[in-house]
Every structure is written in structure tokens, then in C-alpha cells.
Design a protein that fits this description.
Number of strands: 20
Number of domains: 2
Strand content: 25-35%
Number of helices: 13
Largest sheet: 6 strands, mixed
Length: 468
């Protein structure tokens, strides 16, 4: 915990994936709030799976990680036209870190360079005893001072979060022999440390000393805290032990205990959560967390305007999912990156506007001028997957990336290979305008279409590509 009571958290500004499942040469700039929309079975979840793989590097070796990712460990390497699988997967994430983070041994640690690029290549080799997995390359680089964020931001945001350094020396580099070299505090002091080649463990797993390697430790700490949430109402219905876990699980379990802790920490949170519930449910009045003393358990209870009380066991799936999102929103310990699968499930289309407003309100607003670099709020990023045109209706073009599956056939090769592609509807500040319309891919054309049809309808009709 930081001295001001706030936990430091990062934001992903860009992810690159090649050779992983259906993702080949994928480069996706990510905004603080980003929605990926596409039909089923196009690979929407593969990007989240890539992030999940990276999040496990600080705590697990490669065999354990690849066993945990959906699919056979060797089949997650991209399939080639001849039916074989690629031998290498490459990942890169560009991270905008908070300028301080809490280390369990060093306390509050300050960072000189908060915008970093982490790269890792994983390869497989066939041996006499079977295939072998290893890390072929790993780097941690500093983003150059002349680089721009891939989205618009206010001067106050940039001054608060992007104090560019004069030096851009790396933290993990590759020498001429292909060895990975770890540098103490970006090679500003101490002797560089070579790492053994062909290891099954990431440098993030091995290096844990925040005093000598603060930036490596910061990346390690932050990847571990990425959240992957797919709320399941059945896991959210049951009462929770009073002395059990009190943090919302990835499937929504421990909802009652998490809300009880949040309300106990900040009593005003119950009033704000109740206000959101009233927007979502006509006739709702107030949220309560009931202590079932005989059972030593907490249970969610909703009070209506006519003073009836309904426990979580009978609340609708949509209501429980809303309460799960509110637990994420108001939890003082929750910030950073949250990957959320299909938040529209079980929610009536008329209530999706409230869900989208809540999700967007959770994310950091980079256009705000209200930033105090001496008292910064933790960065928050919300990434969602959806296949609902009704949810897309409540998004802005800036929020949306369309996900499609295409078959590519190389010259002289048959059959083709299936790939997942990502198409943002508006440009990033790093590249040209990219609106995948059937004619005149311009911002003006998109605005003209939106005057006639909702965004979800345009997507459904195929005007934007990626028909759901």
C-alpha cells in the first residue's frame, strides 16, 4: 500500500502478438476503455488469452503457463498451411506505469521511466525425448521521449504520467551473442548480469529485488495483478463465510464479502451503489449486506420501494452481474487492467446503457485536465469482449475495435490459414485513419452513417465489417 493509501497500477497502451493461436502479426493500440466486438468463433478471446499468458510469467514456468492456456500446449502455436504448427510465439506489451509502486520488501518505490516496452519470444524445439519449450528472447525497453501515446490526452495527463527521461538505456537487453542481459536500474550503475539462454523461466520470475531492479520489479508486480473476469451468476448467489476471502473472484464468487468490505471501508459506497441499482432496476431502493449470524455468513439483499427484501438467491442474472461490476468499481484495492468477457450476458438490452456508462466510468479519462502529479489516482483500464449489437449501440466509434476471422492464402500455397484481425474504427495518433468501411474510409463517412443508423445496426448490416 502506498503512503497515500492508493495502490499503483499500469495501463497497456499497445499489445503485439505473432504466432499465438489465430493471432499473426497483430498490433493493437489500446485505449483506457476498449471494446472488442465480433461474432462467435473469430478469436476474440485469443487476445485475452495472450494477456493471461503474460500475466503468469512472474509466478510460473513455461510448461505450467502453457498448460493453463486454453488448448494443447503445442497447438497454441499458430497453425501453418501444411497443418504443422509454428515454432515461435512473440509477444510485446507497452505499459504506462504509475510513477510509484508498493513492494513487499522495499515499501514505496519510485520509477524514473514509467512508459516501458516488454518483449518475449517463446519457442519449441523437437528433441529425442519430445518437444521442449524455452524462452528464446526477452527484453524490457524504455519508450523513447519522442514517442506519442496512441490516443489523445490532455496536457495535465501527460505531465502527470509521462515525465520522459533523458536516457533510454534498456533494463533487459540482448547482446551480440543472443544472450539476455539484465541491467541494474537501466545500466546506470553496477555490472550487467547475463542470463542463461534457453530457460523456461522469465527474467520477471527470477529478478525480484526492487532495490536494484525497480523497473523490472514494477513490471513483474503489475502483470501479476491483471484481472480476467467472466461473471457467473451461480457463483455470485451463495452467501459467503464471514471469515473467508473478501475479494471478488474472477467468476464473481465472494460478491457479498467483497461488498461488505467495500462498504465497511467507505460507508458512502453503499449509497452510491444503491443509486446505480435504482437506475438499473425500477422499484429498487437500497442494497444491504445481511449478516446471517447463525450461519456466520454474509448475503446480498436488495430492498425495494415497497419495503420488500430479496436475497441474492432470487435476484436476476443481470442484477448480479451489475453488482459484480459495482464491486470492481468501488473496490479501493482494484485498479489497473481488467479484461471482462461479455458483460451483456443476462442483461436486458434496455439496461445496457447503464452497464456501458458504469464500465466507461471505471476507466481513466486521459482527456481530463484534473490531474495532480503530487496526488495521482491509480490508472484504470477496462477491456471488454462482446458479440452484442445492443451493447455496441451505446459505444462511441473511439471505443470500438472490430474482430474478424479471415483466411489468407499465400502465393503457391493451398489451403489458406485462418487469422484473427483487429480493426479500430478511428485512428490512433501513431498511424493513418483506419475505418473498414466498404467505401471511402473516412471519419466524415462514418459520421454520416451514424446520423442515419445506430452503431450496432451498422455493424450488424455489414457496413463496418465483421458481421455478428
Amino acid at each position: 500500500m502506498l503512503s497515500n493509501g492508493k495502490l499503483a497500477r499500469p495501463m497497456i497502451t499497445q499489445i503485439e502478438v505473432d504466432g499465438f493461436k489465430t493471432l499473426q502479426q497483430v498490433v493493437v493500440p489500446l485505449r483506457p476503455f476498449q471494446a472488442f466486438a465480433g461474432p462467435n468463433n473469430v478469436g476474440k478471446s485469443n487476445l485475452f488469452d495472450a494477456l493471461r499468458l503474460l500475466s503468469m510469467l512472474p509466478d510460473h514456468d513455461l510448461p505450467t503457463i502453457l498448460q493453463s492456456v486454453r488448448g494443447d500446449p503445442f497447438e497454441i502455436f499458430s497453425q501453418q498451411p501444411d497443418g504443422s504448427h509454428a515454432r515461435r510465439m512473440s509477444f510485446a506489451v507497452e505499459l504506462l506505469l504509475d510513477r510509484t509502486f508498493a513492494d513487499e520488501f522495499e515499501g514505496v518505490v519510485k520509477l524514473k521511466r514509467p512508459w516501458l516496452r516488454y518483449e518475449i519470444d517463446i519457442e519449441r524445439e523437437d528433441g529425442e525425448s519430445g518437444p521442449r519449450l524455452q524462452i528464446a528472447r526477452e527484453q524490457l525497453l524504455v519508450k523513447a521521449s519522442d514517442q506519442k501515446l496512441p490516443w489523445l490526452s490532455s496536457k495535465a495527463f501527460r505531465e502527470a504520467y509521462l515525465p520522459f527521461p533523458r536516457r533510454n538505456a534498456p533494463y533487459i537487453s540482448i547482446n551480440e551473442s543472443g544472450e539476455m542481459i539484465v541491467h541494474q536500474d537501466a545500466a546506470e550503475r553496477g555490472r550487467p548480469r547475463p542470463m542463461r539462454r534457453g530457460t523456461r523461466q522469465s527474467v520477471l520470475y527470477v529478478i525480484r529485488d526492487a532495490s536494484e531492479f525497480p523497473h523490472i520489479s514494477a513490471v513483474r508486480n503489475e502483470l501479476r495483478r491483471w484481472r480476467f473476469v467472466h461473471l457467473e451468476p451461480e457463483a455470485m448467489r451463495e452467501p459467503n463465510p464471514v471469515d473467508g476471502p473478501d475479494r471478488l473472484a474472477s467468476n464473481g464468487q465472494y460478491l457479498a464479502s467483497a461488498l461488505q468490505r467495500i462498504i465497511r471501508t467507505d460507508p458512502s459506497a453503499r449509497l452510491e451503489i444503491s443509486s446505480w441499482v435504482r437506475q438499473f432496476i425500477p422499484g429498487a431502493k437500497e442494497l444491504h449486506i445481511k449478516n446471517l449470524e447463525d450461519l456466520h455468513r454474509y448475503m446480498v439483499e436488495l430492498q425495494t420501494q415497497d419495503n420488500r427484501h430479496f436475497s441474492s438467491r432470487v435476484l436476476s442474472d443481470g442484477t448480479l452481474r451489475l453488482l459484480g461490476l459495482l464491486a470492481l468499481q468501488y473496490d479501493p484495492d482494484q485498479a489497473g487492467v481488467i479484461c471482462l468477457e461479455e458483460p451483456e450476458n443476462g442483461v436486458h438490452p434496455r439496461r445496457l446503457e447503464t452497464v456501458v456508462a458504469l464500465l466507461k466510468g471505471m476507466a481513466t479519462d486521459p482527456l481530463s485536465e484534473d490531474y495532480d502529479k503530487d496526488d495521482l489516482e491509480p490508472l484504470k483500464q477496462i477491456l471488454i469482449n462482446t458479440h452484442s449489437p445492443h451493447l455496441v449501440d451505446h459505444l462511441k466509434p473511439d471505443d470500438l475495435i472490430l474482430v474478424e476471422a479471415v483466411t489468407r492464402v499465400r502465393k503457391g500455397e493451398t489451403p489458406g490459414t485462418r487469422h484473427t484481425i483487429y480493426r479500430p474504427l478511428v485512428p490512433s495518433s501513431l498511424g493513418p485513419l483506419f475505418v473498414p468501411l466498404t467505401d471511402e474510409p473516412t471519419r466524415e463517412r462514418l459520421h454520416q452513417l451514424l446520423e442515419e443508423r445506430d452503431l450496432g445496426a451498422l455493424w450488424t448490416e455489414g457496413a463496418l465489417g465483421g458481421v455478428p
